[in-house]
């Protein structure tokens, strides 16, 4: 059976190849014609001179074609800003000096990690100065005994995982974008991913962090204590703040022990009731070794196999639903036996119709590839309307059915997949190209539907620019009011990632 090391070495690099896809064109001005640039200073030679005086030449990028284009556009090629400057600090102090200056000079700043976000949160909307954390990529310390790693914000997730594995530890989060996303960006967006079912989200795994506030002040919350009840836990404010309250520069992460046995199963299922029963029985029978439970519907599997020329697993038939299960444990024989007897039981009682268990790391990788490259496959198909929602588990697939009925006869593909174990559905609708008519058929209907289930209109991708107008479909007006107050308190001049999270302007 496969080991985690082998698995990790081969899986998931979709962002590097997908970056070449240019089909998903929409761009900010088309979809957001009502957006107005805030009253910020324009970049002048004097400003540039200041940044050049405190940073080295390779930390100040100004060449529009050769340097800036990749920073100005998001991975989906759907939001594009027109920044004229990328700053690449190497230390927390440099971040502090930059922000202090920008705050004093009324210059807007867009903090950026690996730029793998899906809601337009990590790219400028107008000409905000981009602050890229990519040069701050050091792993400062890893302690196997306590399971604590301290790392700079710009460290790419995959690099961090490789180093953790050498210390018999692993990351509490895993994403398809791990080859290019950065831990600071993950923390700033409270990224979820495929292990959340097992290890919970970053609000639990981040023990401490350093954040630089809008005025340049360095807030040292870099605690490594697992227990600390000395008043308010301020670090939590920065986790999921999408760079609007401060710039995260260092993170102390609690890392679980590295599993030595990883098993992957793939099941074909005839009805959504049986999908739910599979989840229930998997939880009951696998217990704590269950580390992922992902749903893929037939439409998603069809898309990923046809667009990326991948082979479907060897099952007897096509099914409306597939579940990908992963276990992570420390005893290969025990874990394999558990998964095999689950498979037998599910087949025998008719909950699943067919299933396969990976016999080696190549097969496991191939199964994961089918799940993790769906986003890339969708992007290569045409324009993608993306929804990342939390819904009560029993209603997980209803929204997909409702949307198919609503968009019947239109030339679209409607896919439902995602993190079933967490109630996090990825609903994606593709069409040949962007159409505002189609968009109006989908939104705000989708958000309204989710709101009526008391779900979340953004489960793990954040609000960024694309979802900001829908915040009140999930958060109460009182919550939004206090969020705005908090933003005003931390960033009174609204220089940090403006136009994100909140609809309108902060003065409204
Ligand atoms: O593109 C999407 O909708 C989901 C992307 C990512 O969160 C995933 O789980 O693959
Ligand atoms: Zn996801």
UniProtKB/TrEMBL annotation:
InterPro entries: FAD-bd_oxidored_4_C, FAD-bd_PCMH, FAD-bd_PCMH-like_sf, FAD-bd_PCMH_sub1, FAD-bd_PCMH_sub2, FAD-linked_Oxase-like_C, FAD-oxidored/transferase_4, Oxid_FAD_bind_N. SUPFAM superfamilies: FAD-binding/transporter-associated domain-like, FAD-linked oxidases, C-terminal domain. Keywords: FAD, Flavoprotein, Oxidoreductase, Peroxisome. One of its GO terms (molecular function) is FAD binding. One of its GO terms (cellular component) is peroxisome. Its EC number is 1.1.99.39. It is found in: Peroxisome. The keyword Protease does not apply. Pfam families: FAD-oxidase_C, FAD_binding_4. It comes from the Eukaryota. It is an enzyme of class 1 (oxidoreductase). Its main location: other. Residues 79-258 form the FAD-binding PCMH-type domain. The keyword Oxidoreductase applies. Its cofactor is FAD. It catalyses: (R)-malate + A = oxaloacetate + AH2. Catalyzes the oxidation of D-2-hydroxyglutarate (D-2-HG) to alpha-ketoglutarate. Also catalyzes the oxidation of other D-2-hydroxyacids, such as D-malate (D-MAL) and D-lactate (D-LAC). Exhibits high activities towards D-2-HG and D-MAL but a very weak activity towards D-LAC. Belongs to the FAD-binding oxidoreductase/transferase type 4 family. This is D-2-hydroxyglutarate dehydrogenase, mitochondrial. It comes from Daphnia pulex.
């Amino acid at each position: 059976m496969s080991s985690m090391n082998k698995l990790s070495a081969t899986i998931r690099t979709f962002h590097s190849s997908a970056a070449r896809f240019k089909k998903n064109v929409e761009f900010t001005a088309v979809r957001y014609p009502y957006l107005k640039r805030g009253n910020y200073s324009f970049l002048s030679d004097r400003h540039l001179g200041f940044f050049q005086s405190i940073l080295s030449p390779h930390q100040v990028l100004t060449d529009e074609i050769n340097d800036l284009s990749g920073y100005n556009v998001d991975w989906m090629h759907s939001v594009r800003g027109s920044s004229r400057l990328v700053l690449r600090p190497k230390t927390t102090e440099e971040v502090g000096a930059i922000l202090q200056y920008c705050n004093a000079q009324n210059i807007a700043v867009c903090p950026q990690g690996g730029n793998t976000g899906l809601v337009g949160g990590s790219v400028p909307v107008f000409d905000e100065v981009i602050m890229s954390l990519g040069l701050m990529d050091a792993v400062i310390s890893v302690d196997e005994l306590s399971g604590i790693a301290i790392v700079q914000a710009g460290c790419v997730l995959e690099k961090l995982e490789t180093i953790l594995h050498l210390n018999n530890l692993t990351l509490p989060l895993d994403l398809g974008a791990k080859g290019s996303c950065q831990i600071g960006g993950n923390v700033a967006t409270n990224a979820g991913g495929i292990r959340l079912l097992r290890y919970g989200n970053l609000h639990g795994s981040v023990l401490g962090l350093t954040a630089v506030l809008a005025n340049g002040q360095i807030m040292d919350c870099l605690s490594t204590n697992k227990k600390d009840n000395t008043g308010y836990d301020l670090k939590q404010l920065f986790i999921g703040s999408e760079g609007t309250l401060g710039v995260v520069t260092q993170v102390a992460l609690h890392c679980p022990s590295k599993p030595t046995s990883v098993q992957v199963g793939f099941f074909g299922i005839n009805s959504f009731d049986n999908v739910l029963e599979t989840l229930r029985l998997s939880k009951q029978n696998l217990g704590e070794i269950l580390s992922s439970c992902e749903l893929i519907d037939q439409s998603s599997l069809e898309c990923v196999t046809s667009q990326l020329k991948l082979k479907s697993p060897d099952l007897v038939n096509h099914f409306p639903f597939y579940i990908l299960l992963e276990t992570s444990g420390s005893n290969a024989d025990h874990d394999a036996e558990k998964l095999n007897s689950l498979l037998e039981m599910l087949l025998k009682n008719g909950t699943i119709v067919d299933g396969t268990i990976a016999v080696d790391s190549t097969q496991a990788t191939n199964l994961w590839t089918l799940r993790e490259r769906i986003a890339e496959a969708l992007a290569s198909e045409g324009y993608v309307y993306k929804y990342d929602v939390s819904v009560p588990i029993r209603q997980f697939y209803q929204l997909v059915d409702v949307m198919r009925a609503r968009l019947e006869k239109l030339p679209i593909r409607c896919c439902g997949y995602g993190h079933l174990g967490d109630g996090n559905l990825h609903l994606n609708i593709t069409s040949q190209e962007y159409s505002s008519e189609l968009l109006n058929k989908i939104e705000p209907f989708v958000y309204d539907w989710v709101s009526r289930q008391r779900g979340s209109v953004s489960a793990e991708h954040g609000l960024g620019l694309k979802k900001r107008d829908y915040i009140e479909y999930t958060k109460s007006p009182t919550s939004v009011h206090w969020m705005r107050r908090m933003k005003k308190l931390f960033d009174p001049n609204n220089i940090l990632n403006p136009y994100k999270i909140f609809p309108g302007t902060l003065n409204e």
